[in-house]
Amino acid sequence: MINVFQPSLGAEELEAVQEVFESNWLGHGPRTRDFEARFAEHLGVEPEHAIFINAATAGLFLATELLGLGPADDVVLPSVSFVAAGNAVAATGARPVFCDVDPRTLNPTVEHVERALTPRTKAVLLLHYGGLPGDVAAIADLCRARGIRLVEDAACAVASTVDGKACGTFGDLGVWSFDSMKVLVTGDGGMLYVRDAELARRARRLAYYGIEQVSGFAAAKVTDRWWELNVKDFGRRVIGNDLTAAIGAVQLRRLPSFVERRREISRRYNELLADVEGVRLPPALPAGHVGTHYFYWVQMDPAIRDRVAGDLRDRGVYTTFRYPPLHKVPAYGGDAGELPGTEAASESTLLLPLHQGLPDADVQTVADELRKAIEQRAGEARG
């Protein structure tokens, strides 16, 4: 089966893991701090603002806690988003208010966000769909003007920028994912960016039980009773560790080549599928925008989309759609009304295999099988 997602791991990562084993220190330690510093440099921020955690989902929950969200608050987020975002908001008692998206980019515009704002809106939680930056700069300006906090779910956008500024750093908080399906992987893991220095310090405490000092060895240098606890907040344990951080540091070094290969595959799909009748390809990036190329999607007549996906699966090509609209999830308990862009995108969009390990021959196979499936199903639909 040709997979949609697949990590690229090899000898360098194994060597890094071996070094951690030999050090006999697997927990939160020097390699964690090194990875945080390297990733902060990648983002163009100071190291103390980047916190390596055990999952991006933990980062989203931590972000809602840091913002003090509660039952009196509304949070605007696109309906085309991952369930982790909806859960992180709803778990605080705040109300998720789902906004529409552009049916071609699957990202909300600043107008979509503005129309969804309410007098109770305390935050906007923005996703960068497929690694496309979207309207993030304008949305950040809108939030600042209205006194609303902006959280960026940059899980798909580890290498995405607008005019040289990293996605995830436009707002007050940003989260990246390093799970096994992402571009940069650590197995499980994520990074949290917090713009405000004091809030960043509190985030570190909350990520480790609310304790001011996470290392007994460090505390032993300044106190005779280093085992005593200094609990500042009621936190939990969501910190990263040196084992996964060592993998992440290698992956970060390899990231430019990963993204370039994904860019090449996207260009190849564009060439191979340009003349397929009834297929719409992803929109071109605006000037100044750099994407991560996490997703490559095509759009087609909703009447044949599911059958085309089934045909491809039967022919050894796995496809999918991410993310099913959250405004249709009963657990979030609200009626978002009409979201025509979201509805159109969710019924017509199909993600094709895209990862840096995908050989040219498989790219050709995917394109050939997609062409055949669409031609067959479109012909049947015409009768």
TrEMBL record:
Known cofactor(s): pyridoxal 5'-phosphate
InterPro entries for this protein: DegT/StrS_aminotransferase, PyrdxlP-dep_Trfase, PyrdxlP-dep_Trfase_major, PyrdxlP-dep_Trfase_small
Alphabetic keyword roster: Aminotransferase, Pyridoxal phosphate, Transferase
E.C. code: 2.6.1.-
Lineage: superkingdom: Bacteria
GO molecular function per UniProt: transaminase activity
CDD domains to which the protein is assigned, alphabetical: AHBA_syn (cd00616)
Family from the record: Belongs to the DegT/DnrJ/EryC1 family. L-glutamine:2-deoxy-scyllo-inosose/scyllo-inosose aminotransferase subfamily.
Name listed for the protein in its UniProt record: DegT/DnrJ/EryC1/StrS family aminotransferase
The species this protein was found in: Streptomyces johnsoniae
